[in-house]
Request: fold
Amino acid sequence: MPVDSCPLHGLEAADLSCSIREHVTHSLGKHCSEAGNRDVATALSLTLRDRLVDKMLQTRDRYREARAKRMYYLSIEYLLGRCLGNNIFNMKIQGEMAELVSGWGYNLEEIREFERDPALGNGGLGRLAACFLDSLATLDMPGCGYGIHYEYGLFKQSIENDRQVERPDYWMAEGMPLQLERRDQSVIVPIYGRVENHQAPDGSYLPLWVDWQDLVGVPYDIPIVGYGFKTVNYLRLFAAKSTDSFNMQIFDQGDYIKAIHQKVYSELISKILYPSESISFGRELRLVQEYFLVFCSIRDITRRFLKQNRNIEELPEHAAIQLNDTHPALAVAELMRLLVDERRVPWDRAWNITTSTLAFTNHTLMPEALEKWSVELMEKVVPRHLQIIYEINRRFLDSVRLSGTVDTETIRRLSLIEENGGKQVRMAHLAVVGSHSVNGVSKLHSELVKKVLFPDYAALWPGKFNNKTNGVTPRRWLYKANPGLAGLITEAIGEDWITDLDQLQRLEPLADDAAFRESFAAVKRERKAHLAAFLAKTTGIVVSPDALFDMQAKRIHEYKRQLLNAMHVIH
Reply:
């Protein structure tokens, strides 16, 4: 591995080369002469992580010094994609890094193939969350994401003997060099148990949540670098662990399996993305996952807030919490529980803090896709939260009646509790009532949210509903995904489009430029030839680069459109 001393945007290549060598030797325990592509990929990731962590700490210090208001994004899915190449592109060192590893006899693209995709999401919801974090960092905005550190992500799929075969995706099989374990910031999570009703010395109601079980949420941070390498935020994912490895008393009596049962069950919570809900245990586990995410996130957010602020009532001035769909809707009840039960804030003031802090993004108009949890299940898993939801509902409906609405059907539609065929908590309703802002993900969708999904709420609070158009980051989906096209665009209009996609409108006059059209067609055909070569290599099927391609790049799953597309092809 010879040393290259060309500058890398302030990061000396010699320094990077030395750091990669150090990690091969001391992190992987190998001589550099023994290193293969996988070893170099790991050492390169660790080298970049060192620099990302330095910048992440600088970013954190900048936020603290400015006492900046921070945005926290709660999502049960994150579809990050592979991080190594994305980090290199956002640090703007792709050409120099490729040259550096080429000098050692390696190919950067081949090295990148050894990185596993942390497939911690099913599709649009998770990809939107990942794009949102990328944009926050690129815009130098204070914010981070919260999610679950699933051990097994979205399933791997292949077609064997004309049949679909699904296998678990153990994305951590080779480890993830980029992430940082933050065991010192672990969270104790109470769950199950029951509520006892008591009276405080001043005569007020004092509920006591008792006989609950403990979980431990261990955070793992993945640095999120903004384009230009000025800001590095992070995504914090919580893994569920048991408080004790096993019960020694039971173990001493000879029942080893029973002794470790609690540990096994606790760690099952973050074992797999979206357990099957076809059986009752799957439903319960899904609710536990959502509560686990919410409790860990709210505890971490308030811990960070209270480090710099003594008055919890100032929380909305320093924190904004965005709920990505209904999965984190329990944040409404958890924040109220923390304020009322733990901080002893009077209900009305606690409700004002909660609604001023939380905002809600709706993703679907299908009523059957809006989460509802049975009252019976919620009473088993989160008994105190169910009490709080009932109290929120009582006060809310009382205020609606006082405003003059006494129509029984309207009250029924507004209620957080659905009573048809067994009582269920409507999580979308809870999120709307407990937030100060509700948005869809496109102009049309946001209008339909008001007119079709929540017309009664929109009539009550027309100012609460607004639009935030869903988008994707041009860094990953153009700048990185298609370097030929990105280079052509930059040559034509400069590189400002990379952080301002509206700049692409400046390409419009070039539609009449024959030379530009020719260059565009050449770039497009080169990419199609690259795809044709990939298909030939991986499937043995030879296609012409001049054919029209209709591509499908997602897994076939029962609730996705890909199955319909496959049926259309057959038809």
